[in-house]
Design goal:
CATH topology of one domain: Leucine-rich Repeat Variant
Protein name: Protein broad-minded
GO biological process, one term: non-motile cilium assembly
Number of strands: 2
Number of helices: 60
Low-confidence stretches: 1-5, 82-89, 147-166, 385-393, 448-454, 511-527, 694-703, 852-869
Largest sheet: 2 strands, antiparallel
Organism: Pundamilia nyererei
Strand order of the largest sheet: 1-2
Distance between the termini: 56 Å
Radius of gyration: 39 Å
Helix content: 55-70%
Mean pLDDT: 77
Main location: other
InterPro entries: BROMI_C (IPR055392), BROMI_M (IPR032735), BROMI_N (IPR055391), PHAF1/BROMI (IPR039156), Rab-GAP_TBC_sf (IPR035969)
Shape: elongated
Structural class: mainly alpha
CATH class of one domain: Mainly Alpha
Oligomer: single chain
Length: 1087
């Protein structure tokens, strides 16, 4: 390791060269945290990363330090287990070698030495950089000092030997000579001497205080010889002094300008198109504010290196000047000229303020001062908010408007900036709210303004820039733009059929701003009936799509029937595309082909927009009602086969969209009809059985690594019991006597037949990788059985438990230690025992967790099920006996209760020919039966009474299924209200209250709505203990159905650490469905 000490100089050179190479990337970072993030991901973003000499040096150093360790560990692991030497086990070998190397003494020593050496190198580079900077500054100051000394000596002394004494005498005389009582010539000569003297000497002399006062007086003199020379000294001081000196100069300049505005009540005619900036008093102030503005733009480059109080003093003096206004305005048509007018002329787009707000170091001080002392600055800017209505030819006022707009736009993108509103301003009775400000800003687009200056400074362009800036911040867009009055103002041109130019401008703005879209018309006509071109409609649809694919946007948009308008437009366009004539050679084929192409593109745009309704639970209901769900899913599958993203608005591919669609019966039917499920099954089979790699089970993960993605797709697809019913209901297994090696499954029943129900030698021999594939199937079965309705269907149709027990009977006298037996054991215990986390104890699933080998078959000898039609009765009866609530003879009473409830509920349902019937068991009725300790009469009475309450529609899924209380199209949709109502609001609140959890679901391709549907449909059985289930039902009945939403959100919030952890390991679905083994208390969850 001593080579570092020898090569330290070389290493310094390499680091310096490396930093120079990436300086562009680092300097563009808005904050140190972002710069650090860029460095951490440099290897991913910089194609030249491995060509840097510094990187090569580090690679060689690591190889020298750890090469022997890696080689030794590789040999050891290869000898220990030969499987690491072949196939895909190579990845496992690399992982194991890496882990052992990281914990080795050599690695720790290398890291320690490397860290210390790099600290030394970096500190050395920093010191050299600071020394170089100081040396440059000293050289620059000495050069200026020599030039000033020569000039100063020529004017103040006849000999160089008396320079110091004469200079001091001259400085002492300057305040006296600059006094306003002195003649102009004396003051002018004093100013000339002052400008030639070294700034540092002037600022450090004993008479600086009185000299500063006289300089400020000179600044306000009407004589340009005096004011310009005084300003020249201020400019020299600001450009060549450190901040601790320049802040004092700037303060003096700001106070002098403020004093001038106070003493000279300047005004300009508001009705005039011009203002003469050559007027002496305006020209003088304009020059002084110009100097201030130049300093404002540059000061951000170095004020972070000084104490915060220096920066705060500069900011405070600026705000003090900008907050200046006369208490009594000018009469008639005259307007008072204020500092902000002249500042706007010089820096029309408020570049100085943008620079000040760029870094948190200064932004925090700015917002604090505005909140505490200088709200009048913002109110002064807001006074210009309605001037845009009359700005056509008034350049000064227009510049002030532009400057104010830029400053306000920069302010309101920050949380503390929005807290400044509402603000009380002069001439207005009511305080101005943030919504009022944005409405007045949008007016600039709605009024036909003459162009002022270039297009870059046109009102429409400026407002667009502000709206785009707000759009970039999601929270800011929600608070500022997701407001009904703002949207109505934005959409005024659409309602009033404004000119095409205005409509295009509005469409362009809306296409860049994600807002809650609100239309004034209660019902939208078909978009094909509109005379607007497709490109313009497409811009509006794009914005709508960005809104209705989130729950909040859909809530606002839903009453206006956009889904119906889109569906009508699609149907009309589809019929037109079918009627387009086939091009005939020589008969205008070009125009006909182009027309057909445009029609097809428009049709795909409409289908894509309709498909995006499926991103939320309630949106999926609206999509189903349009009758276009099958076509939309087929369109999505066509894009899937082409490896295209589902849409430009869907950031995480197909995961969330497919999961959301698959949660419902009509959605999974559409997926099946499109060929999506067939493609998924074939892809899975290819990974499991046809892959050329040697797949091995890694105990630390829940499924095979190579098939993890396919496993998660299947879990998402089969998460809902309704989906399982549609795909498996009345579908027998093949159970063939022979399977060819080329025969591949194409459906979910085929997959179960080949991977789960492996109960014959024929099926075993048909698998190339029997152990891995069957393990995959058993783990999929384990997840499916977590949904009680899904398990009851599997057991009633395929006798899953009997099949597993039959395999155990074959191994009756065998000591079982393989992973397949452990997995079968876990599945059997899970499906045979009902209860919450503390009411049942599941066996381990991994071989490492099994404490000792044992024979398992005798455990299940009493598990024979007499009649599959009564499986659920047996389960409920067994659970009731375990809880001490039921007696042995209570099973008949439970069956009788279910019969009465079924008859009662049948009278509450619409008569429909739809096959999308309610397939699940009535878990609420079973829960009530247990609460009533098996008393059938009391249970039935309670259920009948409960059916009259609104709450029953949410906690009793069987009660509300196809209910006559819903519109016919909703009742026949096959989508339960628990999904499109409760789960929808859970997702909406989750995004607002627990955004990290919401993002975790989004990235995992899973949805909170599916998990809520799972929990609520089976009344939290197997997820909560019995007492907590009772608390849940009582809370919803007593407090109202909204507490069902609150409880789900509270559970997700309580699980946040686990959810985030398992999202990283790609096991979120498995954790929520299978591994939720903690005991939660409802009161603890809520509070």
């Amino acid at each position: 390791m001593s080579e570092f000490a020898e090569d330290e100089v070389e290493l310094q050179s390499l680091v310096k060269q490396f930093l120079r190479s990436i300086s562009d990337k680092i300097s563009s970072a808005p904050s140190p945290e972002c710069a650090e993030e860029i460095l951490l991901h440099l290897e991913e973003t910089d194609k030249n990363f491995h060509n840097y000499e510094f990187v090569k040096y580090l690679r060689q150093y690591v190889e020298n330090a750890l090469g022997s360790v890696v080689e030794e560990e590789t040999n050891n692991l290869t000898r220990e287990d030969g499987q690491h030497a072949i196939g895909s086990g190579h990845d496992t070998l690399i992982h194991a070698v890496t882990q052992r190397t990281r914990y080795s003494a050599e690695y720790q020593q290398m890291i320690h030495t490397l860290k210390n050496t790099m600290i030394t190198v970096v500190e050395s580079l920093k010191n050299k950089s600071e020394e170089d900077q100081l040396r440059k500054e000293e050289t620059h100051q000495e050069k200026q000092h020599r030039q000033s000394n020569i000039q100063f000596t020529d004017n103040c002394s006849d000999s160089g030997s008396s320079f110091s004494r004469v200079r001091e005498n001259c400085l002492q005389m300057l305040p006296i000579n600059l006094d306003s009582s002195k003649p102009k010539e004396v003051r002018w000569e004093a100013l000339k001497v002052l400008c030639r003297a070294p700034t540092s000497d002037v600022l450090s002399c004993e008479s600086w205080s009185s000299l500063r006062l006289n300089l400020c007086v000179a600044l306000s003199e009407p004589d340009p010889d005096l004011s310009d020379n005084a300003l020249r000294f201020f400019a020299k001081s600001l450009s060549s002094s450190p901040l601790n000196v320049t802040r004092e100069i700037y303060t003096s300049l700001a106070k002098s300008v403020e004093s001038s505005f106070l003493s000279h009540k300047l005004s300009f005619p508001s009705g005039s198109a011009t203002i003469d900036v050559n007027r002496p008093e305006i020209s003088r102030l304009l020059k002084q504010i110009r100097l201030m503005n130049d300093f404002q733009k540059e000061v951000t480059n170095f004020w972070i290196r000084h104490p915060e109080k220096y920066m705060e003093e500069v900011i405070e003096n600026t705000f003090s000047l900008l907050s200046f206004h006369h208490e009594h305005g000018s009469p008639g048509t005259e307007r008072v000229l204020e500092p902000v007018h002249l500042l706007a002329l010089l820096d029309v787009k408020a570049t100085w303020f943008k620079k000040w707000m760029h870094g948190y170091y200064s932004r925090a001080v700015i917002l604090r001062l505005l909140e505490r002392k200088y709200k009048s600055v913002v109110s002064g800017l807001l006074n210009n908010k309605d001037l845009s209505l009359v700005y056509s030819g008034k350049e000064l006022e227009y510049c002030c408007f532009v400057h104010s707009l830029c400053v306000l736009g920069k302010l309101i993108i920050y949380t503390n900036g929005k807290k400044l509103f509402p603000i009380k301003i002069r001439k207005y009775k009511d305080p101005v709210t943030l919504t009022d400000l944005l409405i007045n800003v949008v007016k600039c687009i709605l009024i036909h303004l003459l162009s002022v200056g270039s297009d870059v400074l046109s009102p429409s362009t400026l407002v667009m820039e502000v709206l785009w800036m707000l759009c970039e911040q999601t929270e800011c867009a929600t608070e500022c733009l997701y407001q009904t009055p703002v949207i109505e103002k934005l959409l005024t041109p659409v309602i009033l059929k404004s000119p095409a130019a205005t409509l295009s401008l509005i469409a362009d703005i809306l296409a860049h701003v994600v807002i809650k879209f609100r239309l004034l018309d209660k019902e939208l006509p078909s978009l094909c009936e509109s005379d607007m071109p497709h490109s313009l409609c497409g811009a509006f649809i794009l914005v709508c799509r960005q809104m209705y694919n989130i729950c909040e946007g859909l809530q606002v948009l839903r009453p206006y029937g956009l889904h119906k308008a889109l569906a009508a437009a699609w149907k009309k366009t589809s019929s037109l595309s079918e009627r387009v004539q086939t091009p005939v050679p020589g008969a205008g084929a070009g125009s006909s082909t182009q027309e057909l192409q445009n029609t097809l593109i428009w049709e795909e745009t409409l289908l894509d927009s309709l498909l995006n309704f499926g991103a939320t639970p309630k949106g999926l209901l609206l999509l189903q009602q349009t009758g276009a769900i099958n076509e939309c899913v087929s369109y999505m599958f066509s894009r899937f086969t082409k490896k295209l993203q589902v849409s430009s608005c869907e950031k995480f591919g197909y995961g969330v969209m497919v999961t959301q669609v698959a949660a419902t019966a009509p959605g999974v039917v559409a997926l099946h009809g499109s060929g999506f499920i067939r493609a998924l099954v074939l892809e899975l089979w290819s990974v499991l059985e046809c892959s050329s790699d040697d797949v091995r089970v890694v105990p630390s993960v829940s499924v095979l690594l190579s098939s993890l993605q396919s496993f998660l797709y299947l879990v998402n697809l089969l998460s809902s019991s309704q989906s399982v019913w549609e795909l498996l209901g009345r579908q027998p297994l093949a159970n063939k006597s022979e399977y060819t090696l080329r025969e591949m499954p194409t459906s979910i029943p085929d997959l179960i037949d080949r991977l789960i129900a492996v109960n014959s030698d024929v099926k075993i021999h048909s698998l190339f990788r029997y152990e891995e594939s069957h393990t995959f199937g058993l783990r999929l079965l384990n997840v499916l059985c977590c949904n009680l309705d899904s398990f009851l269907l599997l057991e009633s149709q395929y006798n899953i438990c009997s099949m597993l027990l039959q395999i155990f009977s074959v191994l009756l006298r065998t000591i079982i230690i393989d992973s397949l037996s452990v997995e079968r054991n876990h599945v059997l215990v899970r499906v045979s025992v009902v209860g919450g986390p503390s009411e049942r104890r599941l066996p381990p699933r991994d071989l490492q967790e099994v404490r000792y080998p044992f024979s398992l078959s005798h455990i299940y000898k009493g598990f024979a099920l007499e009649d599959v039609c009564f499986i659920h009765f047996i389960y409920i009866h067994r659970y009731g006996i375990y809880l001490g609530l039921l007696k042995e003879e209570a099973a008949n009473d439970l069956a009788l209760l279910m019969k009465h409830v079924k008859i009662f509920l049948s009278t509450q349902r619409v008569k429909t020919s739809s096959e999308l019937s309610y397939p699940g068991h009535d878990w609420l009725a079973s829960t009530v039966f247990l609460i009533m300790a098996g008393n059938m009469e009391k249970s039935l009475c309670l259920l009948v009474s409960l059916s009259s309450l609104l709450t029953s529609g949410f906690i009793w899924p069987a009660r509300i299924h196809a209910s006559i209380h819903f519109p016919k199209e909703v009742a026949e949709s096959g989508i339960p209200p628990v999904y499109w109502c409760t789960a929808h609001y859970v997702e909406m609140l989750l995004k607002a209250e627990v955004p990290l959890v919401h993002s975790a679901f989004k990235m995992s391709g899973f949805t909170p709505s599916q998990m809520c549907l799972h929990w609520l449909t089976q009344c939290f059985w197997n997820y909560l203990d019995w007492t907590e289930i009772c608390h849940y039902i009582c809370t919803c009945v007593v407090m109202g159905p909204d507490y069902q939403v609150y409880m789900c959100v509270a559970i997700f919030k309580h699980l946040q650490p686990d959810i985030l952890q398992h999202t990283q390991s790609q096991e979120l679905q498995i954790f929520l469905k299978v591994r939720w083994s903690q005991n939660y208390n409802i009161h603890a969850i809520f509070y």
